[in-house]
Amino acid sequence: MWIQWFLETLLNSLKESSGLVDKIVTKAMTWQKLNKIALDNNQKKIITMMLDGFEGNLTSSKWAKICKCSQDTAIRSINYLVENKVLEQKGAGRSTHYILACMEKLEIIIKLI
Hints:
The chain is mainly alpha-helical. Helices cover about 70% and strands about 5% of the residues. The protein has five helices and two strands; from the N terminus they run ααααββα. It has a two-stranded antiparallel sheet with strand order 1-2. A hairpin with a 6-residue loop joins β1 and β2. α1 packs across α5 and α3 crosses α4. The longest helix has about 35 residues. The radius of gyration is 18 Å and the shape is elongated. The two termini are about 35 Å apart.
């Protein structure tokens, strides 16, 4: 009984560790790619939040609230990241939101490793 519990606990710990390592590798690979682009502190803050599992959809109004800036500044920052292929626009009009463009590619690479 004790050995079975120990092995199950060990297996669960290994699975959790593997997931954590995947997240760390994904973040490191993303920042390695993004270091080639000039980013301001607010852009770095939002990208970090998205890599850490941002809840819900990123919109320009959420950006403005998080970074304590105007809606226009948020839109300029977002457009810069879209132009540099860091973010992808999804939806249109009031349902416009943004995702990290590189995340899907990095997740595929990590699965191949």
